[in-house]
Amino acid sequence: MVSQFFIHISSHIHGGFMISQSSPDGDVHKPQHVEIKAIILYITTFFQSTGASLIWPITTLYMHNVLHQSMTVSGVVVMGLSVTMMFGNWLGGRLFDRWSPYKAMTLSVGVALAILIMLTFWHSWPVFALFMLLIGFADGLIYTLVNAYATTIQSIDTRKVFNFQYLFMNVGVVAGTAIVGFLFDYGVKYVFGSAAIMYTVFFILVIKYFNIKGLAKQSAQAAARAAKSTFKTPTIIYAILGLAFAFYMSYMLWETVIATHMTDLGMTTKDYSFLWTLNGIIIIFGQGLLNRIIDRLPLRLTVLGGSTLFALSFLVLIQAKTYPMFIVSFVILTIGEIFASPQIPAWVDKLSDPTAKGHAQGLLTMFVSLGRAIGPLYGGLLIDGGSYKLLFASVFILMMFFVALTLILNIRHLKK
Fold it and tell me: Which segments cross the bilayer (predicted)?
């Protein structure tokens, strides 16, 4: 299985720029589409994800334990980071569609790198908070732009592109979270310095490979067509955006309040940390298996079926009192994540205006960031005013509402 997985990866290396083909009489046809090489997209995703994963696990911990800020202040900064990321998501889509994809990408990664270098040397309060808000904005731009670049790839099935991109992103998460656990004890400057190194490699790759000849012109032509376009956005897209919001709002509970819940029940932080290691392992091998059959499965089945599994994991959490029950819940959630999460952007891309791909991916990443921003606040409010059981039941109901709504609107869309 592992050897076949790497053979499948190698086949993606040949996906890339569309090359002019010669007709039998020797005439050269102009390329009909320009795109980034898939393997370059995956590698840059890995380095960006590794760099980002060095930072987010220690943000709250560093503010509270080292900078001696309250949990409320720390929570506000984390929420602010998500809000600035949303603005970056929105702007990234507009820059891709209406300006230069390459210039927008270079500027965004360059800004993020500059901030990380400054954070390496200046990370006291409140400079740290300001820099985190700025890095959120820059990363928001980057996430949308990377997704928009992914939609340019036509030589490979879009679903497989997003699936492999998601795989490399999670390999980066596993690498980053493993490295940060080792570096943090030696000093936060080593954490930010390592993140800066990852973004330096990312920046070099962007400069060398992201200046796709003809892509800026293609985006300008698409923007001109978009101004005259009569394309009406299908209502189902808004339901998918709502599903993405609920998905990531619920997911944030695992990154925040569930850690506290587990320690309250007598489990250790090592127990909690192992769940994320398990999550990464399942995703890496699960995505490899899924990519062999993904093109045989309808998008609605992978997204809605995966989202339903994801929601069901919270029903297990309602009754979870022991560590094995938390493992069962997280495994169910991870399997649902494997099916749904990487296929949501592919479904949005399929349904969106072909002249405004960046805008569509920008909207999606905005709703993802909004879910991440609201999740910790929502969790805290329901725990303070109710209980963990009420919280888990409510996110199950919210998830299933959007699953049902998306299913109904998809049936109507197919009838049209």
Answer: 39-59, 71-92, 104-122, 128-150, 162-184, 190-210, 235-254, 274-294, 301-320, 326-348, 360-378, 390-411
CA distance 223 to 245: 27
> 56-89 in b/e burial notation, b at 16+ Cβ within 10 A?
bbbbbebbeebbebeeebbbebbbbbbbbbbebb
**Nearest alpha-carbon partner for 330 in 303, 353, 350, 312:** 312
Integer Cα distance of 345 and 149 in angstroms = 12
CB contact at 8 A, 154 and 33? yes
Handedness of CA 76, 77, 78, 83 (dihedral sign): positive
* 11-53: pLDDT as tens digits: 333 333 332 333 334 444 444 456 778 888 899 999 999 998 8
- Give the pLDDT band (50/70/90) at residue 366: confident
Q: What is the DSSP code string of 71-126? A: HHHHHHHHHHHHHHHHHHHHHHHHHHHHS-HHHHHHHHHHHHHHHHHHHHH---TT
Tens of pLDDT, residues 71-86 = 677 777 888 888 898 8
Give residues with Cβ within 8 angstroms of 130, minimum separation 6.
none
- Hey, what are 76's tokens? 């506000």
Nearest to 361 by CA among 151, 214, 156: 151
- Report d(CA 210, CA 225) in Å as an integer: 24
Q: Determine the residue type at 188.
A: V
Q: H or E element: which one contains 263?
A: helix 257-264
Cα dist from 143 to 37, 65, 74, 123, whole Å: 17, 30, 24, 24
- Higher-scoring residue by pLDDT: 163, 303: 303
122: which DSSP letter? -
Average pLDDT for the chain:
81
The pTM assigned to this predicted structure is 0.72
Question: Measured between alpha carbons, how far is residue 244 from residues 79, 140, 175, 239, 320 in Å?
Answer: 18, 16, 25, 9, 25
Alpha-carbon gap, residue 340 to 131, rounded angstroms: 33
* d(C-alpha 343, C-alpha 90), whole Å: 20
**CB burial of residue 405 (10 Å; 0-12, 13-18, 19+):** middle
